[in-house]
Amino acid sequence: AAAKVGGILANNTYPAQFIYSNLLVQTNVINACYKFQVKKLLFLGSSCIYPRFASQPMKEEFLLSGKLEPTNQAYAIAKIAGIIMCQSYNREYGTNFISVMPTNLYGPNDHYDLNNSHVLPALIRKIHEAKKHGSKYVEIWGTGTPRREFLYVDQLILISGVSLILNYYNFPFSKIL
Q: NAD-dependent epimerase/dehydratase domain location, by residue (predicted)?
C-alpha cells in the first residue's frame, strides 16, 4: 500500500498535497499493473470515503451515498478515484483489480506526531503526555458519537492475502464468512 496519509489536522491543512500525491501514486501503480499485465491488484481504499452522516454501524452499501467529511474530502476523493479507476480498467481492459476499504489501521511505524497522526496514535500520545505532565484532562476532538473499528496492520495483510488467493481460484470470499 502506498499513499500519503495523516489525521484530521494534516488532511485539513494540506488538502492539495493529499489529493495530488494520492492521485499520482495510485494512477501510476494501477496503470503500471495494466501495462505489465499484473494478474491481480488489491487496491486499498479508505473508510473515509463513507458519507459523513452514514448511520452506525456503517454498511458497504453506504459507499458513495452522501456528502463526505469536509476535513478529509481531498484524500477521500483521491481514494474514490482509485476505486473507480480499478472498476474502469476491469470493464475496459478485462483486468482483475479489486478494491477493499479497510477500517482504521494501527501498528508498527504509526505516527505519534499530533500534527499527522491518526486517531489511535493521537489518543495514545495525548494520554501519555497527560500522564507524564500530571494533567487532569485530555483533549479529544469530535462529538464522541462516531463509532470506530480498529485493525492491526498485520491482520489486514493476512486477510488481504487470503482474499487474493480465494479470488484467484474464483472462490467467493463470502462463502467462508
A: 2-156
The CA distances from residue 101 to 16, 36, 49, 82, 110, in Å, are 22, 25, 9, 12, 19
- Domain membership of residue 171 (yes or no) is yes
Decide if 112 is catalytic: no
Lowest mean pLDDT among 33-42, 56-65, 122-131: 56-65
Q: If you search the block for the grid coordinates 484530521, which residue do you land on? A: 8
- Alpha-carbon gap, residue 27 to 82, rounded angstroms: 7
Q: Which comes out higher in pLDDT, residue 70 or 102?
A: 70
Q: What is the spatial distance between Cα 82 and Cα 45, in angstroms, rounded to a whole number? A: 8
pLDDT of residue 13 exceeding 80: yes
Task: Tell me the C-alpha distance between 159 and 98, whole Å.
Answer: 13
In a domain, 72, yes or no: yes
Domain of residue 34 covers 8-104+150-176
Highest mean pLDDT among 48-57, 73-82, 102-111: 73-82
Count of structural domains, the chain: 1
Which listed residue (75, 112, 168, 169) is catalytic?
75
Give the position of cell 487470503. 162
